[in-house]
Amino acid sequence: MRTAPLDHQDISLLLDEVASFSNSRIAQLTARSDHPIDADTLIMLSHEAAALGILPATDSNAGYALWEQTDDAGAMAFSVGALVQIACANAGVAMAWHRASLAQSMCRMIGLPLEQDSPIAMTAVASGHIGVARSALAHWLQDRTHDDDHLVLCDWLDRRLRHTLVTAAPMWEHLLWPMWHDDAIFWQRLRRDQVMLHPCRHQHGFDELHTWQVSAAPDIGERVRATPAQLSALITLDSLGLLAISTGIARHGKQMAEAYTGVRKQGGKTIIEHPAVQNLLGTIRQVHWEARTTLHALSRPLAALSVRDVMMARQQLLPRLCLAANHVMQVHGGIGYMQDCGPEKLLRDQNMLRLQSGGVRDIPLFLQAWAEA
User: Fold this and answer.
1) Are 138 and 312 in contact (CB under 8 A)?
2) β-strands 122-124, 174-181: how paired?
3) For residues 174 and 122, is the Cβ–Cβ distance under 8 A?
4) What is the pLDDT of residue 335?
5) I want to staple 349 with a disulfide (CB 3.0 to 4.6 A). Which of 91, 320, 340, 344 is the partner?
């Protein structure tokens, strides 16, 4: 069912509700950074978020939850703004909800039926086993691949021989990813019991989530041939979500740094009066402004977004956002390195975001290949 477009007042009111829920529920339950929430608490929060319309419903009725109306500018602004608010409270929760909502959105786009009982029963993978396939992915998205590109994509999206890292909520039941089969890219949706799972040790960040090495045969599960437009949509929405979550972490870090520097005294005066601290805090504020401004510019309907622009923003901003998180930790001095204080977790989560979906190191190769068209 098609819903009416959102205007600016609607978006503001909805984001106020998300902020209230994030502060009163998520932040309260995840306040101890050294004690991550368990699976039961994450499930409880997810059902509450679904009841509020933040997460998509488990049926086919579309509203304005995360990534549900990607052709509407207001709905996209809401999805991006909501992820910022949620990540400001807890990045791990935001990551789980982003990928679950993204999987549902892509299933609708592809034409796969939605069959799940929990709002976070499904997760998505937006990349191959490592990197972003150099120039081959950009060529395929522009429908101008060469023989060498096929070899790279065949390896990059080999889900049987290459293990793919999946970081998600521990209770996921279905997985959606692109894979290479019969000299083409297909969508493959798999039940958990159809894949080979190798649990990994706890990762650097995202304490609330688990990570597995996953592999699967290409001839099982549900398969639909992928189009360049569909894969572009997945990469664009995933990258936009990662940027929003990273911006939420930056907002949280900025708030912590501003509060701490205003009360902590050293040498007979508050540390905000020291030039070194002023420099750190100035960089924190500047990077947060850069991320917020970029997100505002990218909060457009999916059809008006370029995968090149979103990838470029990710490549430019995520290293800067990691630097800002490091500055937040430095501002707090010795306690900034303590796991129970907060800044240390923000930095670890920010580092994890930089490494998601192939990381950012190979993005310049993608951008150069895109520009060759």
Assistant:
1) no
2) parallel
3) yes
4) 82
5) 91
The CATH number of the domain covering residues in 231-371: 1.20.140.10
Please, what is the angle between helix 73-89 and helix 228-261, to 10°? 40
- 317 vs 33: CA distance, rounded Å: 25
pLDDT tens column, 197-249: 999 998 899 999 999 999 999 999 999 999 999 999 999 999 999 999 999 99
Per-residue tokens: 232: 């572009």
The two domains 124-228 and 231-371 share their CATH topology (first three levels equal): no
d(CA 263, CA 8): 37
Mention every residue, 6+ apart, whose C-beta is less than 8 A from residue 129. 156, 158, 162, 163, 164, 165
Answer whether residue 62 shows pLDDT above 90.
no
Place of tokens 């529920």: 25
pLDDT digits (tens, 9 = 90+) for 341-353: 899 999 999 999 9
- Are the beta carbons of 329 and 344 closer than 8 angstroms? yes
Phi/psi region, residue 131 (left: phi>0; alpha: psi -120 to 50; beta: rest), is left
96 half-sphere exposure, CB direction, 13 A CA radius: 27
Predicted local distance difference test score (pLDDT) of residue 1:
42
CATH topology of domain 8-113: Butyryl-Coa Dehydrogenase, subunit A; domain 1 (1.10.540)
Q: How far apart are CA 128 and CA 139, in angstroms?
A: 15
Query: Where are the chain's structural domains?
Result: 8-113, 124-228, 231-371
> 205: burial class by Cβ within 10 Å (0-12, 13-18, 19+)?
buried
Q: Does domain 124-228 have CATH number 3.90.550?
A: no
DSSP bridge partners of 212: 166, 199
Q: Provide the pairing of β-strand 269-270 with 174-181.
A: unpaired
